[in-house]
Amino acid sequence: MKLLIFVHHPFDLWCAPAWFPERLRSEFFELNIVHLPDYKRVDEEILDTEIAITWSVRPEQIKSAKKLRWIHSPAAAVHQLIFPELVNSDIILTNAREVHGPVVAEHVFALIFALAKKIPGSVHLQEKHAWGQQILWDELPRVREVAGATVGLVGLGSIGRAVAKTAKALGMRVIAAREHPEKGSEGTDAVFGPAQIDEIFRQADYVVLAAPVTAGTKAIANAERLALMKPDACLINVGRGPLVDEPALAAALREKKIGGGALDVFPKEPLPADSPLWDVPNLLITPHTAALTDKLWERHYALFSENLRRYLGGQPLLGVVDKQKGY
Fold it and tell me: What is the dihedral of CA 294, 295, 296, 300, to 10 degrees?
């Protein structure tokens, strides 16, 4: 049985470290494990592969991989894999949403506290050697408490659930929108279906986007919904870039129609140096760092090795993606 690992990215942390396949070999000695440093030999190596770890594969490679039965993506988002050749096949697709969810949730709160306490403004004043107590207080929206504020979650998956749990512990009110509200509130104070998503934008002090990219979620934060937000409310996107209408968000911030924003993901990454977003007031930009952790590949190994045991034992896998829905 062959396991092919081809996870290549310019950012080092996204690439599988050398110890990952070595540890798998020591634990699953019956497997033939091939770890590729790039994509040059994928076409030939995938021909007799049964299991693959990757987040990028081409339709023609799926067609040629007659033995392929399971693809595991180290990412949470799998929209780049949702094409007919894979969707209509019998290949199982799993993702790493449970690896990333708790870590991304921590980043969400780093952004919420940064916006609530005006940390970016303090850093800017520090660079100028300026004591800006009065400046920070006078600038709207005011410095605020997080306890008692309402966080609105668009998406109640692994990220949304982790955010909800921490938000409740901080004394926040939590509301959420999910595709199937009948699945339950997951500890939130209220849950809405897709038709009521406007209520998230109306009620929340912090709107957190943590939904997968589907036809129904692209530009879900558009000009119309941003116009529903409170003048001191903030929009946070840790899902995927296409969830936000970026020109509409920039306009809302420049015109001070909303209080602030924080983006960790963008339709085009890296964000170009000439992007107008860099200079938008009250917009905090982090370079897709929400999922970064020094424990990342240890967390990946724990999930994948457990799933590998399940696969070899004929048991149901964790993190299975509904290919028809795209998440």
Answer: 160
Cα angle 54-164-200, degrees, rounded to a multiple of 5: 95
The helix (run of H) or strand (run of E) holding residue 175 is: strand 173-177
pLDDT of residue 68: 98
Cβ count within 10 A of residue 177: 27
* Active-site hit among 22, 224, 269, 306: 269
Residue 280 DSSP SS3: coil
**Predicted pLDDT of residue 250:** 98
Domains of the chain: 2-98+293-312 (3.40.50.720), 100-285 (3.40.50.720)
pLDDT at 294: 97
Annotation marks residue 288 as catalytic? yes
Q: Catalytic: which of 72, 100, 107, 240?
A: 240
CA distances from residue 64 to 45, 68, 71, 78 in whole angstroms, order as listed: 10, 9, 14, 21
Q: Pairing between strand 260-263 and 234-237? A: parallel
DSSP 271: P
Count CB neighbours of 75 within 10 A: 19
Cα 267 to Cα 277: distance, rounded to the nearest angstrom = 12
| Residues in the chain, pLDDT under 70 | none
244, β-bridge pairs: 221
Write down the pLDDT at residue 113. Answer: 98
What would the two tokens of residue 238 be?
């840790």
Q: For residue range 137-183, what is the model confidence (pLDDT) as tens digits?
A: 999 999 999 999 999 999 999 999 999 999 999 999 999 999 999 99
Nearest to 77 by CA among 183, 187, 209, 248: 209
The whole-angstrom separation of Cα 149 and Cα 170 is 10
| Res 135: pLDDT | 97
**How high is the pLDDT of residue 285?**
98
